[in-house]
Amino acid sequence: MADPIKLVATNRKARHEYHIEETIEAGLALKGTEVKSLREGRVNLQDAYCAPENGEMYLYNCHISPYRHTGAHDNHDPLRPRKLLMHRREILRWTQAAQQKGYTIIPLSIYFKKGKAKVELALARGKKLYDRRADIAEREAQRRLERVLKGRRG
After folding, report:
1. Domain boundaries 5-127, corresponding CATH code
2. At 149, phi and psi to the nearest 5?
């Protein structure tokens, strides 16, 4: 049986604004209140990105809301950089790939797998405005085609 994966949050704008070249799964080093907030689904990946620092990979601008059932002094900083748990070889390879012109590392989703918080990272290249317009036109054409085919069947 496959491992049950509980999806917590997705970065919906990522696939609209970037060409996804490659993906990888990484663990997240979190504090207790962060895990509790994640389980409640109180996370925002909108402007999040990853960057290497001192030979380690960190997740920046990922907003995990403070846990509601804890006092203010026991809670975490919502925007603190979070360490990603990856093998050294993976960190080096992804760092080199991200240093190429136009590439960045962005999170696509956060989920729980076997009780551990995981993040799906993507090596991505930013889309130009005309690329986005072409994608929208292609989706609209596909919708029209499906609508016509559905009308014929009925």
Report:
1. 2.40.280.10
2. -65, -35
